[in-house]
Design brief:
The complex is a heterodimer of chains A (356) and B (247). Chain A is α/β, with parallel strands linked by helices and 356 residues long. Helices cover 42% and strands 20% of the residues of chain A. In chain A, α1 packs parallel to α6, α3 packs parallel to α4 and α9 packs across α12. With 247 residues, chain B is an alpha/beta fold. Chain B is built from ten helices and seven strands. In chain B, strands 2-1-3-4-6-5-7 form a seven-stranded mixed beta sheet, sandwiched between helices. In chain B, β1, α2 and β2 form a beta-alpha-beta unit. The chains are: A alpha/beta (356), B alpha/beta (247). Chains A and B meet through α3, α4 and β9 of A and β1, β2, α3 and α5 of B. β9 of chain A pairs parallel with β2 of chain B, so a sheet runs across the interface.
């Protein structure tokens, strides 16, 4: 397979087609418009349907209908649009309908800006809509991973009957990188629960209303049991020079690309610094993080927000190691030098602490 | 003794939860009879809405997807685009369709989505306790318009069928009622046309059915039927507003 140069958003869209997705419903918002634009051209060529909805609310409910009818279906948006989709996302989670939702994050809150940020971490990983539910949240950090994780997202969504989210950002969506596109997969997933017309079987109901409190509690118990299985089986992460690291930087997506450069700078100067990069943000890869910080005396979380994932890092490490945070908002990227300086000062504090 | 009428196959034998005198049960039965007569039960997906008819999935003996408040036309769009050969219908009340779901119904109609919409209008929010709806009549008292609907406060009632009739795409738009036996017979014919429009691939079809809400109107069932005839029909005139092939 040869490499091609592709923009992140377009590579993701092509990956969705190769994953067997034939339905897209969405509403334009920057910085992810290349996804709907690409699919508007390409889906009809594959016998699929592209439909620009009148709103994000309608788009996610079209996704809900298509998923209920048994299709592999995609929608994509960015922060403010994802907020509007939360009603439908809660319904998709409650009815256990598989679908893939892309959030190419921009800065917030409110209308915010159109530059890359990671301020939707809480919204993606802690619910976002109403009720007790979880999404499978995947965080790519390259165009190649946008492709790989899109294929994985469709598989995980079908396997667990759960919505999966690709949590990218404006930089990943807009950047161009060489990428290897996988051959199209030909997966026929059996969906005996789908509402397709009841010919030859008992009728199927897709519903999330449980007026009997006991029945609703049973649904929630069943969902939690599923979420526990996902937690046990699907924690994914990437380690870079963590084996002997005395300080481990934790970062995902675009922030992890900056962190990796800083780790290289630190190593050149003889500092034992490594990078732990969560690939699944839910489930959070806490087992991997505990292993990666086995030798660490300090942890620094680097995010394009005011400190969201840092809470999961602290929960995972349970105060065993001091955890510091460095972040930027507004679409401003942390400079490698600033991250380096922060690491240097933390290492100095550690020495002081050890001596004192 | 011979049985004059059986339960339609498209209905389950579950007893309706609707209040005494409410005409939802009649509309359910008419939809089910039409589905039986057209022989489409096994090829149909129903979309249940939010409101009094939220439990429609308990009653229609076919595949049903329950939708969020107002979103049934969008959900139906998703189902129909995946299953273009199947029959897809939504069953919505006026709080659902004419208020929170206005955007969804307007745009599904404007796209000419090949679905059938059964729109039951009882001029109030039934399930949540009789609050003001977009379809509440001027002067009509509800729990959130205790002095009666006033145009300078709450605006005017929304004539959805007439609004949609200004669009190019819809193929069949009609308003009917079920307040007396002759009207029930006529309503069934109209509902049948709305399904046939979809089966014949002619486009978006919608029937508004005027319905009673005795409990929230504070009337007896008989008084409610009379109120529907005397008060609602002048504001919501019955008839066929758009027919297939005539735009």
């Amino acid at each position: 397979m040869s490499k091609v140069l592709m923009k992140g958003n377009e590579a993701l869209a092509e990956a969705a087609i190769r994953a067997g997705c034939r339905y897209f419903f969405g509403y334009p918002i920057t910085p992810q418009n290349e996804i709907p634009e690409y699919l508007a051209r390409r889906l009809p060529e594959h016998g699929g349907v592209f439909l620009q909805a009148e709103s994000e609310v309608a788009a996610i409910n079209m996704v809900y209908g298509a998923a209920a009818a048994g299709a592999r279906v995609l929608t994509s948006s960015s922060g403010p649009g994802i907020s509007l989709k939360q009603e439908g996302i809660s319904f998709l989670a409650a009815t256990e309908l598989p679908c893939v939702i892309v959030n190419m994050m921009r800065g917030g809150p409110g209308l915010g800006g159109i530059q890359a940020a990671q301020g939707d971490y809480f919204q993606a990983t802690k619910g976002g809509g109403h009720g007790d539910y979880r999404l499978i949240v995947l965080a790519p950090n390259s165009v190649q991973e946008l492709v790989n994780l899109t294929l994985l997202a469709f598989d995980l969504a079908d396997h667990y009957r759960n919505p999966a989210m690709i949590l990218g950002d404006g930089i990943l969506g807009q950047m161009m990188e060489p990428v290897i596109l996988p051959p199209p997969v030909n997966i026929q997933v059996d969906k005996p629960w789908a509402a397709t017309g009841c010919k030859g079987r008992n009728r199927n109901i897709v519903n999330s209303l449980y007026l009997d409190p006991q029945e609703l509690a049973e649904l929630n118990d069943r969902l939690q049991e599923k979420y526990n299985r996902i937690k046990a089986n699907e924690q994914r992460y990437d380690n870079y020079l963590t084996t002997d690291a005395e300080l481990v930087v934790v970062a995902f997506g675009t922030a992890a690309r900056i962190a990796r450069q800083v780790v290289d700078d630190c190593r050149l100067r003889g500092m034992k610094v490594g990078l732990f990069r969560p690939v699944t943000l839910w489930p959070y890869p806490e087992k991997g993080l505990i292993e990666a910080t086995g030798q660490a005396k300090r942890v620094l979380t680097l995010e394009l927000n005011t400190g969201q994932m840092v809470e999961d890092v602290r929960l995972s490490l349970r105060d065993r190691i001091p955890v510091d945070f460095l972040g930027c908002t507004g679409g401003i990227l942390p400079k490698a030098k600033d991250v380096y300086n922060k690491i240097e000062s933390l290492i100095a504090q550690k020495t002081l602490f050890a001596c004192g | 003794m011979s049985l004059a009428l059986n339960l339609p196959e498209a209905l389950t034998d579950k007893a309706f939860h609707y209040c005494p005198g409410c005409t939802h049960g009649i509309v359910h039965r008419l939809v089910a009879e039409v589905i039986d007569e057209l022989g489409i039960r096994e090829n149909t997906v129903g979309i249940a809405s939010v409101g009094c008819s939220v439990l429609a999935y308990n009653y229609f003996n076919l595949d049903v997807v329950q939708a969020a408040h107002g979103r049934a036309p969008a959900v139906a769009t998703g189902v129909k685009r995946v299953l273009p050969e199947q029959v897809v219908f939504t069953y919505q009340g006026d709080g659902d369709l004419a208020s929170i779901g206005t955007a969804e119904i307007v745009h599904a109609a404007a796209r000419g989505e090949k679905i059938t919409v059964i729109f039951v209008n009882n001029s109030c929010y039934g399930m949540t306790g009789g609050q003001l709806a977009p379809t509440t009549l001027l002067g009509q008292k509800t729990t959130t318009s205790p002095l009666g609907r006033r145009e300078n406060i709450d605006g005017y009632p929304l004539n959805i069928i007439e609004m949609l009739a200004t669009l190019r795409a819809p193929a069949f738009l009609a308003r009917t009622s079920v307040h007396k036996p002759s009207m029930v017979v006529r309503a069934k014919k109209v509902i049948r046309k709305a399904f046939e429009t979809q089966i014949n691939n002619e486009g978006f079809a919608m029937v508004e059915i005027l319905s009673t809400c005795p409990v929230n109107w504070g009337l007896t069932p008989i008084q409610a039927l009379k109120w529907l005839e005397e008060k609602m029909i002048p504001i919501y005139p019955l008839g066929e507003f758009k027919l297939p092939g005539r735009s």
